[in-house]
Here is the input.
Amino acid sequence: MATQPAVQAAPPVTIADIRAAQARIGDAIVRTPTLLSRTLSALTGATVYLKFENLQFTAAYKERGALNTLLQLSDEARAKGVIAASAGNHAQGLAYHANRLGVPVTIVMPRTTPIVKIVQTESHGATVVLEGDTFDAAYAHARVLEGERGYTFVHPFDDPRIIAGQGTTALEMLEDVPGLDTFVIPIGGGGLISGIATVAKAADHPIEVVGVQAELYPSMYNRIRGTDLPCAGDTLAEGIAVKEPGGITARVIANIVDDIVLVGERCLEESVSLLLQIEKTVVEGAGAAGLAALLEHPERFRGRTIGIVLCGGNIDTRLLANVLLRDLARSGRLARLRIRLQDQPGALFNVARIFDQERVNIIEVYHQRVFTTLPAKGLITDIECETRDRAHLDRLIAALRTAGYETSQVELA
Here is the structure.
């Protein structure tokens, strides 16, 4: 990390490179706003500014580095075309700007890629090649095609041109909010945080740079700290679920990033939900990682003036719905209660009357007579209901138990 002595060598990216990238790409990307969130500031105890990169045309910051790279290619390289391996935001950002510039673009994706991502990438003018069942297999095939057909490979993060493009986000943030003293930035391969840290360390006042990784994929954390935590699992932050971080980015992070923290899935889910409810903005799991760090490590950031990049908004609508419903359940506004009844006329009516008395809305009723360990004349009823808050739910449960009903709440994992 930045506190450790390191061999000084010429940095792969300088502040001059990032300023040049800003001039190069400025006319073709959205200059997204950096806005104060009063509610999130009150919630976290920090002064929280959000950079809305989910408002880019392809809904992610990846356009910046992709465009900066494309604009520096020779005429010969442009004519032959570019290639990348990606099933995410890099694919769409590269495809969009390559097509806009008249550069042929091929994207290699694993066969397991959801059809919606294939269609979105093709809609930006890319030729999509499906190869292998993993990203590594798709990446290997892309490098083969690069050699066979003379394409230029555009790496998603481990390229100085990519890093310089991504760093333009920090230039804009400091132009809008000069008083930022902390950046809290997601880390996947490390391109975004490498560019932002380069800007931060060239500022006219000290700015701390803290990286964020999902607990399930602490690859850069392992690389920098020398740990061996496992990298596997289904994380909501799939955009930063990288098993092998970049070599260039790892060197930058080791030299000038101050810290890396890990966040759990529950905080990632809560952050996606809060950003939609409070800021009325849709972010993917990786895009919510900065806020998740503030929620999971409040003492680490309290009192700071913090810049967070909402780096992407490409989240599956069904997954988003599931995240929102789970958050309602955890907050007590949505619940499933398991109630033991006697199998006799009026039993369910009498229970429903208590819900009415407590002004609780019943959403679904699941009546179970057969698949239960109760005696033949007993039954279990699961009732999904909607309450105002946790206290309202607690009053309902107390009223049911006072009436003699054995009641328990079906909890989320």
